[in-house]
């Protein structure tokens, strides 16, 4: 350090990400990675634990009252790939930055996953579809929790990776 150089503080973290194409790309990449991880868990691993796959499209059908499985799968995919990652970026992470700024990114991601699980199995399944809260805490409930934890962690990891990568550029 020379006598003429001024040491600068690192830039403060903004509460919300900038509304840019890069932010949207980050959300989509996070959603794709998290949705793929969810699908591997739900359809390839969960059957060994509970005897069958997690089928969120069936919940979508119950909530909206239609029988079209393709449409239900498409709705679940769009929500997972687009809207949940945006929810992480613009709702969950800003709340964590205000309420618990000391938590590392991965705990925030796991908390986000728990929030998605509560939303799916209490709000959507119970309040909207009329099923027992958290499906009565059957084995499928816990498999769903693990899947949502994976989803939240992967979402947070991809967002962190993208932001770290763009900060270095």
Task: Describe, in plain words, how this protein is organized in 3D.
There is one protein chain. This protein has 169 residues and is mainly alpha-helical. The chain has one domain. The chain is 73% helix and 0% strand. It is built from 5 helices and no strands. It has helices at 21-50, 56-64, 69-99, 105-128, 139-168. Helix 1 (21-50) runs antiparallel to helix 5 (139-168). It starts with 20 loop residues before the first helix and ends with a helix. The mean pLDDT is 91.
Highlighted features:
membrane, transmembrane helix, DUF1440 domain-containing protein, single chain, mainly alpha, 169 residues, 0% strand, transmembrane, 5 helices
User: What amount of the residues lies in strands?
Assistant: under 5%
Count of β-strands: 0
Derived from helix and strand composition plus strand pairing, the structural class reads mainly alpha
* Largest sheet descriptor: none
- Tally the helices: what do you get? 5
Q: From the alpha-carbon coordinates, what is the Rg to the nearest angstrom?
A: 19 Å
How far apart lie the N and C ends? 23 Å
Global morphology: globular
Mean pLDDT across every amino acid position: 91
Instruction: Give the helix level as a range of percent.
Output: over 70%
- Give start-end ranges of low-pLDDT stretches: none
Strand-and-helix sequence, N→C? HHHHH
The structural domain count equals 1
Transmembrane segments: 69-91, 103-128, 134-159
Keywords: Membrane, Transmembrane, Transmembrane helix
Protein name: DUF1440 domain-containing protein
């Amino acid at each position: 350090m020379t006598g003429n150089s001024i040491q600068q503080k690192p830039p403060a973290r903004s509460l919300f990400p900038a509304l840019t194409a890069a932010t949207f790309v980050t959300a989509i990449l996070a959603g794709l990675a998290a949705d793929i991880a969810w699908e591997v868990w739900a359809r390839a691993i969960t059957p060994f634990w509970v005897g069958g796959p997690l089928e969120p499209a069936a919940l979508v059908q119950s909530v909206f009252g239609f029988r079209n499985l393709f449409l239900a799968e498409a709705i679940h995919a769009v929500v997972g790939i687009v809207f949940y990652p945006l929810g992480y970026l613009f709702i969950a992470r800003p709340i964590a930055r205000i309420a618990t700024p000391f938590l590392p990114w991965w705990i925030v991601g796991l908390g986000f996953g728990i929030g998605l699980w509560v939303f799916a199995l209490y709000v959507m399944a119970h309040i909207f579809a009329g099923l027992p809260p958290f499906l009565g805490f059957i084995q499928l409930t816990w498999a769903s929790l693990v899947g949502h934890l994976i989803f939240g962690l992967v979402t947070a990891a991809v967002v962190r990776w993208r932001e770290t990568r763009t900060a270095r550029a």
